[in-house]
Design brief:
Number of helices: 7
Number of strands: 0
Radius of gyration: 19 Å
Shape: elongated
Distance between the termini: 73 Å
């Protein structure tokens, strides 16, 4: 395989993996992504796709690890937002907020104006849910903190 054919083959395999993910065939998509990573361990797209598969299967620790690996290779708002979603699902709200705020900030760096809005809206919504979760968590603790004398009355 020549040098130009290798990236094209990898792109085609990744497209097929994405199609399989959308079709719900996670096992085949996972196998395809793992083959891509075996050939190129720093394939951020394949790592992120594996992270999404783990996320869809509620395997939060695996998803977090895979999104972290992908972000070590290439920082992008979608992967960072997915990482934030995983942290939210595991109750790590501070980490979730940090990732989602970072993802929102990265959307400002996107080259196409239309692309930024498409990415920004779902990130903003999830960040709002995380902020509400933090608030509700704080409100739930308020009576306990008052009984302990740790808040002003």
């Amino acid at each position: 395989m020549n040098e130009e054919a290798a990236p094209n083959a990898a792109a085609a395999a990744l497209e097929e993996a994405e199609r399989l993910i959308k079709a719900g065939d996670y096992a085949s998509a996972r196998e395809m992504c793992e083959q891509l990573i075996a050939k190129s361990p720093a394939d951020a797209d394949a790592l992120a796709a594996l992270g999404r598969i783990a996320m869809l299967q509620y395997r939060w620790p695996d998803a977090i690890r895979l999104f972290d690996q992908a972000l070590c290779v290439r920082t992008d708002p979608v992967t960072l937002a997915n990482l934030g979603n995983c942290y939210w699902k595991t109750g790590e709200l501070d980490q979730a907020e940090y990732c989602l705020r970072g993802a929102l900030a990265l959307t400002l760096c996107l080259p196409a104006a239309g692309q930024a809005g498409a990415v920004e809206a779902p990130i903003s919504l999830t960040l709002g849910v995380v902020a509400l979760s933090v608030l509700l968590q704080g409100l739930a603790l308020l009576p306990l903190l008052r009984r302990m004398g740790l808040t002003p009355r």
